[in-house]
Every structure is written in structure tokens, then in C-alpha cells.
């Protein structure tokens, strides 16, 4: 079994894509991959959709209106995806991410969260972790404690992952009030625009993808420049 990554992850840009076909494609990719399959990051923007984690309580969907509600196999509770949000799916083999051994799920989550924190910092926004509540929250100011990024993963027994991370850039935030985000009643949700940052979605997509690649790079990699492929 290979314990080092054969190449830097491919970044695929899916554009705007419906959630359910993308979910099916992630599972199909993971089913078909071998120990030599190159890791991939998929950048996508979804039309409005609520997604439920494996342990989610449907009672946390308070008023779905006309937004589809989709059951998934990721961890976590209910969340919302919609236009103006960066979504990056991480199709990784964690066995390759630490020379001589596996990158454990907790380390993987910490690296993803750090990538979000660092991208927010580049836009002069302070994000932080909250113990026991995966994701990134505003660290200061009048919106302190509001959630700006969510994280939900599937890690199979063989160390292969899918699902990923979402960062709110410039969204209609109303649908977050139609649910208990991540299972927390009354949890405030913000985006970068609410925090005073006007940034093109494509710029934030690329910034987060590159920072994820940097965070996940291991010492046996010669280069951390990602290969980018456009899919549509």
C-alpha cells in the first residue's frame, strides 16, 4: 500500500451544479479509486438545498419553504448550501497525508479549519474554532460567535474521504433562519459581505482551494502548486 501521495491534488471547477448529482459523483469516485488514484478537490456552487448529516434530526428543518432537503452520508446536522457560497469537496486518501502513516480525521478537520481561518485573515476577517462545534465562527466584533463556515465529512474505513467545507461569501442568508444550523437553535450565520468584504466568489474559491492544498501538503511533496481542471 502506498503511504505517500503520488501527485498534488487536482482541483476541479464544477461551476454551479445541482447537489444530488454531485453527491452521487463523489461516492462513485470514491468507490472506484485505487491506492494510486490522485486526490481531488472539487469546487462547486450549489442552487439552494438543505442537506442532512447521518445523525441529523429532521425537526431541525423548521420551514424548508420550496428548498429541497437531501439526506447525505456525511457527519453533522443540517446545513444550507446556496448561490454565493464556496463549497469545496475533498476527495482524499488520508493514508497519504503523513509519511509512514495515516492522517487522522481530527488532524484533517483541523487543517481544513485552519485553511478557512487563513483565507479569512487574508480579507482582514478574524475567524476562530469553537470547541465541540466544527466550523469557523467570527472571533470578534458585533457578530462574534456567528458562523461563517461549515464542515461535514465522510471518512471511510480505508481512509478515503468526501464531502467537505463551505464558506459563506455573498449569500441570501434567510434560509439559515429556516433551520437550526448544525442543530443549534438560533445560531447566527453570516457571510463575508455582511462583514464588510466584497469579494468575487471565484477569487475566494481559488484562495480557499490553494490554502487547502498548502495545509494538506506533506514533507514528501516537491511542489504544492495544484493542477487545475475545468469541468462543465
Task: Furnish the topology, listing elements before pairings.
Layout: E1 10-16, H1 19-32, E2 40-45, E3 49-52, E4 69-71, E5 78-81, E6 85-91, H2 105-122, E7 127-130, E8 133-138, E9 147-155, E10 161-168, H3 201-216, E11 227-230
Parallel strand pairs: 1-2, 1-11, 3-4
Antiparallel strand pairs: 2-6, 3-5, 6-10, 7-8, 8-9, 9-10
Helix pairs in contact: 2-3
Mean pLDDT: 90
Count every beta strand, where a strand is a DSSP E run of 2 or more residues: 11
User: Helix fraction?
Assistant: 10-25%
Radius of gyration over all CA atoms, rounded:
17 Å
Low-confidence stretches: 1-6, 219-232
Taking strands numbered 1, 2, ... along the chain, how are they ordered across the largest sheet?
A: 7-8-9-10-6-2-1-11
Helical stretch count? Answer: 3
Instruction: Please trace the helix and strand order, writing H or E for each element.
Output: EHEEEEEHEEEEHE
- Largest sheet: number of strands, sense, barrel closure: 8 strands, mixed
Shape: globular
Distance between the termini: 33 Å
Structural class: alpha/beta
The fraction of residues assigned to DSSP E strands is 25-35%
Amino acid at each position: 500500500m502506498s503511504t505517500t501521495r503520488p501527485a498534488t491534488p487536482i482541483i476541479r471547477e464544477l461551476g454551479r451544479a445541482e447537489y444530488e448529482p454531485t453527491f452521487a459523483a463523489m461516492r462513485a469516485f470514491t468507490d472506484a479509486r485505487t491506492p494510486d488514484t490522485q486526490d481531488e478537490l472539487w469546487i462547486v456552487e450549489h442552487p439552494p438545498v438543505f442537506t442532512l448529516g447521518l445523525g441529523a434530526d429532521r425537526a431541525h428543518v423548521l420551514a424548508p419553504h420550496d428548498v429541497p432537503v437531501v439526506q447525505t452520508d456525511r457527519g453533522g446536522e443540517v446545513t444550507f448550501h446556496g448561490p454565493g457560497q464556496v463549497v469545496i469537496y475533498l476527495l482524499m486518501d488520508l493514508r497519504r497525508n503523513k509519511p509512514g502513516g495515516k492522517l487522522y480525521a481530527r488532524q484533517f478537520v483541523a487543517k481544513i479549519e485552519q485553511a478557512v481561518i487563513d483565507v479569512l485573515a487574508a480579507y482582514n476577517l478574524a475567524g476562530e474554532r469553537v470547541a465541540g462545534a466544527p466550523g469557523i465562527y467570527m472571533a470578534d466584533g458585533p457578530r462574534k460567535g456567528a458562523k461563517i463556515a461549515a464542515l461535514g465529512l465522510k471518512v471511510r474505513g480505508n481512509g478515503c474521504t468526501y464531502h467537505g467545507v463551505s464558506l459563506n461569501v455573498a449569500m441570501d442568508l434567510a434560509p439559515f433562519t429556516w433551520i437550526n444550523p448544525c442543530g443549534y437553535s438560533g445560531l447566527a450565520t453570516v457571510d463575508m459581505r455582511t462583514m464588510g468584504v466584497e469579494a468575487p466568489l471565484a477569487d475566494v474559491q481559488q484562495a480557499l482551494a490553494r490554502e487547502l492544498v498548502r495545509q494538506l501538503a506533506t514533507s514528501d511533496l516537491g511542489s504544492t502548486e495544484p493542477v487545475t481542471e475545468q469541468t462543465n
